[in-house]
Specification:
There is one protein chain. This protein folds into two domains: 169 residues, no CATH class; 113 residues, Cyclophilin-like (Cyclophilin), CATH 2.40.100. It contains four helices and 20 strands. A seven-stranded mixed barrel has the order 12-19-16-17-14-13-20. Strands 7-6-9-4-1-11 form a six-stranded antiparallel beta sheet, with no helix packed on it. A five-stranded antiparallel beta sheet has the order 2-3-10-5-8. Strand 13 and strand 14 form a beta hairpin. The longest helix is centred in the last third of the chain and has 21 residues. It is elongated, with a radius of gyration of 20 Å. The two termini are 26 Å apart. The mean pLDDT is 95.
Protein backbone atom coordinates (compact mmCIF):
# COMPACT_ATOMS: atom_id res chain seq x y z
CA UNK A 1 0.00 0.00 0.00
CA UNK A 2 1.14 3.55 -0.69
CA UNK A 3 -0.54 6.38 1.22
CA UNK A 4 -0.82 9.90 -0.21
CA UNK A 5 0.29 12.48 2.36
CA UNK A 6 0.18 15.36 -0.14
CA UNK A 7 -1.12 14.94 -3.71
CA UNK A 8 1.01 17.47 -5.56
CA UNK A 9 -0.42 19.88 -8.12
CA UNK A 10 -1.95 17.38 -10.58
CA UNK A 11 -1.12 13.71 -10.02
CA UNK A 12 -2.90 11.00 -12.00
CA UNK A 13 -2.29 7.43 -13.10
CA UNK A 14 -1.26 7.13 -16.75
CA UNK A 15 0.02 4.34 -18.99
CA UNK A 16 0.65 4.29 -22.74
CA UNK A 17 -2.98 5.10 -23.53
CA UNK A 18 -6.40 3.73 -24.34
CA UNK A 19 -6.10 2.50 -27.92
CA UNK A 20 -8.80 1.14 -30.22
CA UNK A 21 -11.68 3.24 -28.88
CA UNK A 22 -11.36 6.53 -30.79
CA UNK A 23 -14.03 5.40 -33.26
CA UNK A 24 -16.42 5.54 -30.28
CA UNK A 25 -15.27 9.04 -29.28
CA UNK A 26 -13.05 7.88 -26.41
CA UNK A 27 -9.76 9.83 -26.17
CA UNK A 28 -6.47 7.93 -26.00
CA UNK A 29 -5.15 9.80 -22.92
CA UNK A 30 -2.01 8.20 -21.42
CA UNK A 31 1.27 9.78 -20.38
CA UNK A 32 2.17 13.18 -21.79
CA UNK A 33 5.87 12.19 -21.77
CA UNK A 34 5.80 8.55 -22.82
CA UNK A 35 9.60 8.36 -22.98
CA UNK A 36 9.91 9.15 -19.27
CA UNK A 37 7.06 6.78 -18.38
CA UNK A 38 8.74 3.90 -20.24
CA UNK A 39 12.13 4.55 -18.66
CA UNK A 40 10.62 4.78 -15.16
CA UNK A 41 8.84 1.47 -15.68
CA UNK A 42 11.91 -0.32 -17.02
CA UNK A 43 14.06 0.95 -14.15
CA UNK A 44 11.43 -0.25 -11.66
CA UNK A 45 11.37 -3.70 -13.27
CA UNK A 46 7.99 -3.26 -14.96
CA UNK A 47 6.90 -3.71 -18.58
CA UNK A 48 6.93 -0.44 -20.50
CA UNK A 49 3.14 -0.13 -20.61
CA UNK A 50 2.52 -0.36 -16.84
CA UNK A 51 0.52 2.47 -15.23
CA UNK A 52 2.54 4.92 -13.14
CA UNK A 53 1.88 8.23 -11.43
CA UNK A 54 2.25 11.33 -13.60
CA UNK A 55 2.72 14.53 -11.58
CA UNK A 56 2.79 18.11 -12.82
CA UNK A 57 5.06 20.94 -11.60
CA UNK A 58 4.76 19.83 -7.95
CA UNK A 59 5.14 16.16 -7.09
CA UNK A 60 3.32 14.25 -4.35
CA UNK A 61 4.48 13.11 -0.93
CA UNK A 62 3.72 9.42 -0.30
CA UNK A 63 4.37 6.85 2.42
CA UNK A 64 5.17 3.19 1.69
CA UNK A 65 3.46 0.76 4.08
CA UNK A 66 5.68 -2.08 2.84
CA UNK A 67 9.12 -2.29 1.19
CA UNK A 68 9.07 -1.48 -2.53
CA UNK A 69 11.35 -0.74 -5.47
CA UNK A 70 10.47 2.48 -7.28
CA UNK A 71 11.92 4.77 -9.96
CA UNK A 72 11.49 8.42 -10.90
CA UNK A 73 11.94 9.96 -14.37
CA UNK A 74 10.94 13.14 -16.19
CA UNK A 75 11.55 16.79 -15.35
CA UNK A 76 14.14 18.16 -12.94
CA UNK A 77 12.40 17.51 -9.62
CA UNK A 78 14.07 17.37 -6.19
CA UNK A 79 12.94 14.09 -4.57
CA UNK A 80 13.93 12.93 -1.11
CA UNK A 81 13.38 9.62 0.70
CA UNK A 82 13.16 10.10 4.47
CA UNK A 83 14.89 13.44 3.92
CA UNK A 84 17.79 12.03 1.86
CA UNK A 85 18.20 13.52 -1.62
CA UNK A 86 17.56 11.22 -4.59
CA UNK A 87 18.38 11.42 -8.30
CA UNK A 88 15.85 11.45 -11.09
CA UNK A 89 16.34 8.59 -13.54
CA UNK A 90 17.32 6.01 -10.93
CA UNK A 91 15.65 3.11 -9.10
CA UNK A 92 15.61 2.96 -5.31
CA UNK A 93 14.41 0.71 -2.50
CA UNK A 94 11.87 2.21 -0.11
CA UNK A 95 11.83 0.46 3.28
CA UNK A 96 8.59 -0.01 5.18
CA UNK A 97 7.30 3.33 6.46
CA UNK A 98 9.56 5.40 4.18
CA UNK A 99 8.28 8.79 3.05
CA UNK A 100 9.02 9.91 -0.50
CA UNK A 101 8.74 13.66 -1.10
CA UNK A 102 9.08 14.71 -4.72
CA UNK A 103 8.63 18.49 -4.40
CA UNK A 104 8.65 21.20 -7.09
CA UNK A 105 10.26 21.04 -10.52
CA UNK A 106 13.33 23.22 -11.01
CA UNK A 107 12.97 22.73 -14.77
CA UNK A 108 10.53 20.85 -16.93
CA UNK A 109 6.93 20.17 -16.08
CA UNK A 110 6.08 16.48 -15.60
CA UNK A 111 7.51 13.54 -13.73
CA UNK A 112 6.69 9.83 -13.37
CA UNK A 113 6.77 7.55 -10.33
CA UNK A 114 6.76 3.84 -11.19
CA UNK A 115 6.61 1.18 -8.46
CA UNK A 116 7.66 -2.41 -9.07
CA UNK A 117 4.66 -4.62 -9.80
CA UNK A 118 2.41 -1.64 -10.51
CA UNK A 119 -0.77 -0.58 -8.74
CA UNK A 120 -4.03 -2.47 -8.30
CA UNK A 121 -6.26 -0.54 -10.68
CA UNK A 122 -9.24 -1.71 -12.71
CA UNK A 123 -8.59 -1.35 -16.46
CA UNK A 124 -11.20 0.64 -18.39
CA UNK A 125 -11.28 -0.25 -22.08
CA UNK A 126 -7.90 -1.90 -21.79
CA UNK A 127 -6.08 0.95 -20.06
CA UNK A 128 -5.45 2.24 -16.53
CA UNK A 129 -4.97 5.82 -17.75
CA UNK A 130 -7.02 8.56 -16.11
CA UNK A 131 -9.25 10.65 -18.36
CA UNK A 132 -10.15 13.56 -16.10
CA UNK A 133 -12.84 15.18 -18.24
CA UNK A 134 -14.63 11.86 -18.60
CA UNK A 135 -14.13 10.93 -14.95
CA UNK A 136 -12.93 7.38 -15.58
CA UNK A 137 -9.79 5.28 -15.45
CA UNK A 138 -6.88 5.46 -13.03
CA UNK A 139 -7.84 6.03 -9.40
CA UNK A 140 -11.59 6.70 -9.25
CA UNK A 141 -11.34 8.72 -12.48
CA UNK A 142 -9.72 11.68 -10.73
CA UNK A 143 -6.46 13.22 -9.60
CA UNK A 144 -5.02 11.99 -6.32
CA UNK A 145 -6.13 13.53 -3.04
CA UNK A 146 -4.61 13.63 0.43
CA UNK A 147 -5.40 10.41 2.31
CA UNK A 148 -5.78 8.17 -0.76
CA UNK A 149 -4.44 4.67 -0.09
CA UNK A 150 -3.13 3.13 -3.29
CA UNK A 151 -2.82 -0.67 -3.31
CA UNK A 152 0.32 -2.15 -4.86
CA UNK A 153 0.37 -5.37 -6.88
CA UNK A 154 3.03 -7.19 -4.86
CA UNK A 155 6.13 -5.02 -5.23
CA UNK A 156 9.42 -6.77 -4.48
CA UNK A 157 11.90 -5.26 -2.03
CA UNK A 158 14.97 -5.84 -4.24
CA UNK A 159 15.78 -6.24 -7.95
CA UNK A 160 18.87 -7.52 -9.71
CA UNK A 161 21.37 -4.92 -10.97
CA UNK A 162 20.19 -2.14 -8.67
CA UNK A 163 23.47 -0.32 -9.27
CA UNK A 164 22.74 -0.29 -13.03
CA UNK A 165 19.14 0.88 -12.75
CA UNK A 166 19.98 4.40 -13.83
CA UNK A 167 19.65 6.38 -17.05
CA UNK A 168 20.67 10.02 -17.63
CA UNK A 169 17.66 12.27 -17.97
CA UNK A 170 17.02 14.29 -21.12
CA UNK A 171 17.70 17.96 -20.26
CA UNK A 172 14.55 20.08 -20.05
CA UNK A 173 14.44 23.08 -22.37
CA UNK A 174 12.07 26.04 -22.12
CA UNK A 175 12.48 26.84 -25.83
CA UNK A 176 12.77 23.56 -27.79
CA UNK A 177 12.60 23.16 -31.54
CA UNK A 178 10.11 20.43 -32.39
CA UNK A 179 10.48 18.49 -35.62
CA UNK A 180 7.28 18.10 -37.61
CA UNK A 181 5.94 16.41 -40.72
CA UNK A 182 3.93 18.91 -42.74
CA UNK A 183 0.29 18.09 -43.46
CA UNK A 184 -2.15 16.59 -43.94
CA UNK A 185 -3.77 19.96 -44.84
CA UNK A 186 -0.64 22.06 -45.38
CA UNK A 187 -1.98 22.93 -48.85
CA UNK A 188 -4.60 25.09 -47.10
CA UNK A 189 -1.82 27.55 -46.21
CA UNK A 190 0.17 29.89 -48.42
CA UNK A 191 3.92 29.51 -48.95
CA UNK A 192 4.36 32.55 -46.72
CA UNK A 193 2.11 30.96 -44.11
CA UNK A 194 4.25 27.80 -44.07
CA UNK A 195 7.38 29.94 -43.83
CA UNK A 196 5.91 31.88 -40.92
CA UNK A 197 5.04 28.66 -39.09
CA UNK A 198 8.55 27.22 -39.55
CA UNK A 199 10.46 30.41 -38.71
CA UNK A 200 8.52 32.01 -35.86
CA UNK A 201 8.55 31.37 -32.10
CA UNK A 202 5.23 30.45 -30.47
CA UNK A 203 4.52 30.89 -26.78
CA UNK A 204 2.42 28.36 -24.85
CA UNK A 205 -0.75 30.03 -23.59
CA UNK A 206 -1.56 29.67 -19.85
CA UNK A 207 -4.91 28.13 -20.85
CA UNK A 208 -3.12 25.04 -22.19
CA UNK A 209 -3.66 21.63 -20.57
CA UNK A 210 -3.38 17.88 -21.20
CA UNK A 211 -5.85 18.21 -24.06
CA UNK A 212 -3.79 20.70 -26.05
CA UNK A 213 -1.44 23.67 -26.14
CA UNK A 214 -2.75 27.00 -27.41
CA UNK A 215 0.15 28.78 -29.10
CA UNK A 216 0.53 32.54 -29.30
CA UNK A 217 2.64 34.26 -31.95
CA UNK A 218 2.73 35.21 -35.63
CA UNK A 219 -0.52 34.55 -37.54
CA UNK A 220 -0.34 31.92 -40.29
CA UNK A 221 -1.65 33.01 -43.68
CA UNK A 222 -4.00 30.73 -45.59
CA UNK A 223 -3.72 29.85 -49.26
CA UNK A 224 -5.61 32.01 -51.77
CA UNK A 225 -9.25 30.96 -51.93
CA UNK A 226 -9.23 29.24 -48.51
CA UNK A 227 -11.72 31.25 -46.49
CA UNK A 228 -11.32 29.68 -43.05
CA UNK A 229 -9.93 26.72 -41.11
CA UNK A 230 -12.98 24.46 -41.36
CA UNK A 231 -12.77 21.03 -42.99
CA UNK A 232 -14.74 17.79 -42.82
CA UNK A 233 -13.79 16.23 -39.47
CA UNK A 234 -11.01 13.67 -39.56
CA UNK A 235 -8.74 11.90 -37.07
CA UNK A 236 -6.50 13.75 -34.63
CA UNK A 237 -3.16 12.36 -33.45
CA UNK A 238 -1.03 13.44 -30.51
CA UNK A 239 1.12 16.25 -31.87
CA UNK A 240 -1.38 17.30 -34.56
CA UNK A 241 -1.19 21.06 -35.03
CA UNK A 242 -4.54 22.54 -35.96
CA UNK A 243 -4.98 26.12 -37.12
CA UNK A 244 -8.63 26.97 -36.38
CA UNK A 245 -8.15 30.71 -36.95
CA UNK A 246 -4.68 32.06 -37.65
CA UNK A 247 -2.83 30.60 -34.65
CA UNK A 248 -1.71 27.00 -34.05
CA UNK A 249 -3.20 24.62 -31.50
CA UNK A 250 -1.13 21.52 -30.69
CA UNK A 251 -3.04 18.41 -29.62
CA UNK A 252 -1.75 16.45 -26.63
CA UNK A 253 -2.61 13.27 -24.68
CA UNK A 254 -6.27 14.03 -23.81
CA UNK A 255 -7.06 15.39 -27.29
CA UNK A 256 -10.44 14.88 -28.91
CA UNK A 257 -10.70 11.92 -31.29
CA UNK A 258 -11.61 13.92 -34.41
CA UNK A 259 -11.38 17.57 -35.42
CA UNK A 260 -12.82 19.81 -38.10
CA UNK A 261 -9.92 22.25 -38.49
CA UNK A 262 -7.02 22.32 -40.94
CA UNK A 263 -3.84 20.69 -39.64
CA UNK A 264 -0.65 22.29 -40.86
CA UNK A 265 1.72 19.66 -39.40
CA UNK A 266 2.23 16.90 -36.82
CA UNK A 267 5.05 16.76 -34.27
CA UNK A 268 7.11 13.58 -34.65
CA UNK A 269 6.77 10.98 -31.89
CA UNK A 270 10.36 11.37 -30.65
CA UNK A 271 9.90 15.09 -29.96
CA UNK A 272 6.59 14.86 -28.09
CA UNK A 273 8.44 14.38 -24.76
CA UNK A 274 10.14 17.76 -25.31
CA UNK A 275 6.73 19.37 -25.70
CA UNK A 276 5.35 17.52 -22.67
CA UNK A 277 8.05 19.01 -20.45
CA UNK A 278 7.20 22.59 -21.47
CA UNK A 279 5.32 24.95 -19.18
CA UNK A 280 2.87 27.74 -19.97
CA UNK A 281 4.93 30.70 -21.12
CA UNK A 282 7.66 28.55 -22.69
CA UNK A 283 8.46 29.04 -26.38
CA UNK A 284 8.28 26.49 -29.20
CA UNK A 285 9.76 26.53 -32.68
CA UNK A 286 9.10 24.05 -35.50
CA UNK A 287 11.34 22.39 -38.09
CA UNK A 288 10.07 20.28 -40.99
CA UNK A 289 11.55 16.80 -41.56
CA UNK A 290 10.67 13.94 -43.87
CA UNK A 291 8.61 10.89 -42.97
CA UNK A 292 11.73 8.76 -43.50
CA UNK A 293 13.69 10.82 -40.97
CA UNK A 294 10.87 10.62 -38.44
CA UNK A 295 10.76 6.83 -38.81
CA UNK A 296 14.55 6.58 -38.45
CA UNK A 297 14.42 8.58 -35.21
CA UNK A 298 11.52 6.47 -33.92
CA UNK A 299 13.43 3.23 -34.56
CA UNK A 300 16.46 4.68 -32.77
CA UNK A 301 14.30 5.51 -29.75
CA UNK A 302 12.87 1.97 -29.67
CA UNK A 303 16.42 0.59 -29.70
CA UNK A 304 17.22 2.86 -26.75
CA UNK A 305 14.34 1.37 -24.74
CA UNK A 306 15.34 -2.17 -25.63
CA UNK A 307 19.00 -1.53 -24.80
CA UNK A 308 18.06 -0.47 -21.27
CA UNK A 309 15.83 -3.52 -20.78
CA UNK A 310 18.58 -5.84 -22.05
CA UNK A 311 21.13 -4.20 -19.75
CA UNK A 312 18.79 -4.99 -16.85
CA UNK A 313 18.15 -8.57 -18.05
CA UNK A 314 14.42 -8.08 -18.35
CA UNK A 315 11.84 -7.97 -21.17
CA UNK A 316 10.85 -4.49 -22.30
CA UNK A 317 7.14 -5.24 -22.72
CA UNK A 318 6.83 -2.68 -25.51
CA UNK A 319 4.57 -4.87 -27.60
CA UNK A 320 2.82 -6.91 -24.88
Amino acid sequence: MMRVLAPGLLTTFQDLGRHGWQKFGVPVSGAMDQRSLIFANLLAGNPAHEAALEFTMLGPTVEFSSPAVFALCGGEFQPTLNGKALEMGRAYIAPKGAVLTIGPARAGCRGYLAVNGGFTLTPVMGSRSTYLKGGFGGWQGRALQKGDELPLRGSVCYLNAMDRRFIPQQPCCSSPTLRVILGPQDDAFSAQGIKTFLSSPYRIDPKSDRMGYRLLGAPIARAPGVADGNILSDGVAMGSIQVPDALPLMMMADRQTTGGYTKIATVITCDLPLAAQCRPGDTLRFEAVSMEEAQRLFRRQQREFRALAQALDQPDGLWD
